[in-house]
Design goal:
The protein is an alpha+beta fold. It folds into 3 domains: 8-62; 79-321, no CATH class; 333-379. It has 16 helices and 6 strands. The protein has helices at residues 8-17, 22-26, 32-36, 44-54, 89-111, 129-139, 153-166, 211-227, 244-257, 260-270, 276-284, 288-297, 303-321, 329-350, 356-363, 367-379; strands at 170-174, 176-177, 180-184, 192-195, 202-206, 231-233. The chain has a 4-stranded mixed sheet with strand order 1-5-4-6, sandwiched between helices. It has a two-stranded antiparallel sheet with strand order 2-3. β2 and β3 (180-184) form a beta hairpin. α12 runs antiparallel to α13. The longest helix has 23 residues, at 89-111. The chain is globular, with a radius of gyration of 23 Å. The termini are far apart.
Length: 382
């Protein structure tokens, strides 16, 4: 039995990189502590098991010191001051997977002679963000009365994502790494990110977040695309702050979702009633916490009032969602992969321009799942 020598500090680093201490992984790999104490050495199979458990590239474990793994995008996070800490394997893998999709789609579109999107990086920080919010609404074809045509705010989230994709932006909402339900993304680490590109801009929303908050993040990241300044976003209680870019995107998103002039008109009618935020939410087809956030923006409520409502509402939402199933797998792929992207990958595979193995890698699906999803796309008229 061949044993290998590995620097003990690399074993400890792999555990910390995964977000846990050595004792956590020692429960499933009892020999781990003895390896770190250099009382014995692991076999290759044992080391591979540790690499899989900690989501660490196998070759990293043989390095003399931990590698630098910087975020491949700008960091605008303020959630629990996360920016001071190393990114998790789940976050890094998610960003890299989205970058691979973006790179492939960009090359595919250029090969087909598709022109770049003129709205990407069309705005500047010096521009009035509220005006850009209205510009974004107009680009999506959302007039002043669009909300009345949608039954619920939950439906509005889905419609917004589809409209954004129609505009030419990949819009992904996913709460796990790929399709691995055992690798949930952390809301404490990030809410979403945007990858700007004139041909294939991409928005990623952390689907582990409360659905009521996803709407705000979706439009917030769209504002990043408009600004041409992509990056990772994370903010407590729907309150981006700190960087000028985040403040700008926040203001653009708020005006997009709930125009100040319209909000003020309706607020005067309901503010003294019970559950005024719910009433405003039904009017604008946004979640109640987005309505409450807008009331705070416009100085109609105190910060303490908003925070109390936010904590109560999202708490109830998390408890309710935890008892529900994950829904139809193949229907979920339209959200996790994006129908526009998946359809283009499928066509490329059928035409022989890429292999089906590459198609599986790009979409994050195995052979059987991809084939069934392909049939689902063929018969999907939504």
């Amino acid at each position: 039995m061949v044993r290998v020598q590995v620097p003990p500090e690399m074993l400890s680093w792999a555990c910390k990189r995964a977000g846990y201490d050595v004792e956590y992984f020692a429960k499933s790999i009892p020999q781990l502590t003895s390896w770190i104490r250099q009382e014995q050495q692991p076999t290759l199979n044992q080391l591979e098991k540790l690499a899989r458990a900690t989501r660490t590239p196998f070759g990293y474990l043989f390095l003399p010191e931990p590698p630098d793994e910087p975020l491949p995008v700008s960091d605008y996070r303020t959630v629990s001051d996360t920016s001071r800490y190393r990114p998790s394997p789940n976050l890094l893998e998610t960003i890299h997977a989205m970058q691979r999709r973006q790179d492939w789609l960009r090359e595919s579109l250029i090969e087909d002679g598709i022109q770049p999107l003129d709205f990407v990086a069309s705005a500047r920080l010096a521009d009035e963000p509220e005006a850009v919010g209205h510009e974004m609404r107009n680009a999506l074809g959302l007039g002043s009365g669009w909300a009345a045509k949608v039954r619920t705010w939950q439906g509005a989230v889905s419609e917004l994502r589809q409209l954004i994709e129609t505009l030419g932006v990949m819009a992904v909402i996913n709460g796990v790494v790929g399709n691995n339900s055992h690798r949930k993304l952390s809301v404490e680490e990030f809410r979403g990110f945007a990858l700007t590109d004139p041909y294939a801009p991409l928005i990623f929303v952390n689907g582990a977040d409360a659905k009521s908050a996803q709407m705000f993040t979706l439009v917030h990241e769209l504002a990043h695309i408009w600004l041409g300044d992509g990056g990772l976003s994370g903010f407590d209680n729907m309150q981006p702050d700190g960087a000028d870019v985040e403040v700008w995107c926040n203001r653009a998103a708020s005006e997009f979702l709930v125009p100040a002039k319209e909000f003020s008109t309706y607020w005067e009618k309901v503010w003294q009633e019970q559950k005024p935020f719910d009433k405003m939410a039904r009017t604008f087809k946004v979640s109640p916490i987005v309505a409450a956030r807008r009331a705070l923006d416009l100085n109609y409520v105190e910060l303490s009032t908003f925070l109390d409502f936010y904590e109560d509402y999202t708490g109830r939402e998390y408890r309710s969602s935890s008892s529900k199933s994950g829904g139809n797998f193949y229907n979920n792929q339209n959200t996790r992969v994006g129908k526009r992207f998946a359809t283009r990958v499928l066509r490329a595979a059928r035409e022989g321009r890429i292999s089906f193995k590459e198609a599986h890698n790009l979409t994050g699906m195995r052979d059987g799942s991809f084939q069934k999803y392909a049939k689902f796309l063929d018969g999907d008229s939504s």
